[in-house]
Amino acid sequence: MSREIKLTKEGFERLHKQLELERQRLVEATIILQEQMEDSDDYDGSGLEDAKREKMSIEQRIDELEDTLARAKVLEGAESTKAIGFGSVIQLKEEKSGKELEVQLVSGAEASVPGGSIRKVSDDSPLGQKLFGRKKNEVFVVEGAKGQLKYKVLDIRA
After folding, report:
1. How many CB atoms lie within 10 A of CB 129?
2. Which residues contact 68 (CB under 8 A, 6 or more apart)?
3. Low-confidence stretches of the chain (pLDDT beneath 50)
4. What does the pLDDT look like over 26-68, one tens digit per residue?
5. Which whole-number Å values give the CA distances from 37 to 49, 53, 78, 104, 106, in the listed order?
6. Collapsing DSSP states into helix, strand and coil, what is residue 78?
7. Handedness of CA 114, 90, 108, 151 (dihedral sign)
8. Radius of gyration of the chain (CA)
9. How is domain 77-157 classified at the CATH fold level?
10. Which architecture, in CATH terms, is 5-74?
11. Contact 32, 47 (CB under 8 A)
């Protein structure tokens, strides 16, 4: 059985736009491949092979996006503003530097698609895993590539 993928409404729309862009790229890649095949005297030319690889890469990305969208469960908003869950927008403060950042907790599929005004954090990233269920004013530590980072939850929005 396929696993459901939780997406925000904004993320679902961004994935749809990405799918349309990839479909346009596929049309262009197909035309280039056809031209390469017609112009190539020898079918082992590097241009032809590059065009084939590019087309295959785009087709694979389209398959991934279609699969993600088919399994998507669109969340209308965060489940609560009392505790962090999917779709929550969180205001954090990194304790050591005092730097504040705003992030939204989303699925890995949604975090991988560029766009939107708020930084997306995947639920399976180290920070994302630590965010789940946290409440306002809670302090927690995340192990990162640069060592331990200590954060405080300043605010939670839906």
Report:
1. 13
2. 5, 15, 109
3. 1
4. 999 999 888 888 776 655 567 788 889 999 999 999 999 999 9
5. 10, 14, 51, 46, 43
6. coil
7. positive
8. 21
9. Chitinase A; domain 3 (3.10.50)
10. Orthogonal Bundle (1.10)
11. no
Side-chain-side CA neighbours of 120 within 13 Å: the count stands at: 21
Q: Where are the domains of the chain?
A: 5-74, 77-157
Measured CA to CA, the distance from residue 46 to residue 14 in angstroms comes to 34
Spatial CB neighbours of 8, under 8 Å, sequence gap ≥ 6: 74, 75, 77, 86, 87, 104, 106, 110
| Two structure tokens written together for 145 | 């590539």
Q: What angle do CA 58, 55, 11 make, to 5 degrees?
A: 10
Cβ neighbors of 112 (< 8 A, separation 6 or more) are: 122
